[in-house]
Specification:
Elements (H helix, E strand, L loop, with lengths): L3 H8 L2 E4 L6 E4 L2 E10 L3 E10 L4 E10 L6 E9 L2 E9 L6 H17 L22 E6 H25 L5 H18 L2 H10 L1 H12 L4
Antiparallel strand pairs: 1-3, 2-3, 3-4, 4-5, 5-6, 6-7, 7-8
């Protein structure tokens, strides 16, 4: 299994933060454990490990919200339910200036994506954020025994590329970047999304907003 935290530590100093009351989030039949980190010179990194359906469904999430580097927002989800395995890697254009990334870096992510194109795709449907979701985003689904190892390789390759880019990049206007990143989070809270809708149903909109802005995305 990919250790995203150790990969981050290869490139940046990482400091653990206290998520406070959101270390554990409970609602209905779901329980989630959360860890939050600050990647010095980059931004917020959060992990959420959730179980539902009496343990029959496990959902692992990681999100990097860039504040100090002009990069896309990066999120990863694994859903493991009764032998079915879904990998979702999404990259969102919250960049202040995306020209260099789109010309140089996006094609490199697309090369990695193409390398694993034989893995079965999963249609995630249409959502309000599709216009800012980069073409490097990936969604795969099959039986765990068929794709788990290759999905780990794909995820690790994306992470290494992301952190290599970040390390080589100069810092940007952190406040402007924070607001641009927050615009995506605000969009989730206003327009919804699969995970957002689930949390609002379980813990309410006010708690979901605090959990997302302070912990998961760290934009406030």
């Amino acid at each position: 299994m990919v250790n995203a935290l150790e990969i981050a530590k290869k490139y940046f100093n990482v400091v653990e933060k206290d998520p406070g009351e959101y270390k554990t989030v409970k609602g209905g039949m779901m329980k989630a454990e959360c860890k939050q980190y600050y990647i010095e010179g980059l931004g917020n990194m959060a992990f959420q490990n959730a179980t539902a359906m009496f343990g029959l469904m496990k959902m692992d999430m990681m999100c990097i919200t860039p504040i100090n580097r002009d990069l896309p927002l990066f999120s990863y989800d694994i859903i493991n339910a009764m032998g079915n395995y879904t990998l979702i890697i999404e990259m969102y254009d919250v960049m202040l200036n995306n020209e260099e990334f789109m010309a140089k870096d996006l094609p490199e992510f697309l090369e990695i994506k193409e390398k694993y194109s034989s893995l079965p795709d999963d249609d995630r449907g249409e959502h309000w954020y599709d216009s800012i979701k980069l073409s490097s985003s990936v969604s795969k689904k099959d039986k765990k025994k068929n794709i788990a190892d290759k999905c780990d390789e794909l995820y690790a390759a994306y992470l290494e590329k992301y952190f290599q880019m970040a390390k080589a990049m100069s810092e940007c206007d952190a406040e402007a970047k924070r607001e641009k990143s927050h615009s995506y989070v605000d969009g989730l809270l206003t327009n919804g999304g699969p995970s957002t809708d689930q949390f609002i149903k379980l813990i309410g909109k006010e708690k979901t907003e605090e959990y997302f802005t302070k912990v998961i995305f760290g934009t406030r």
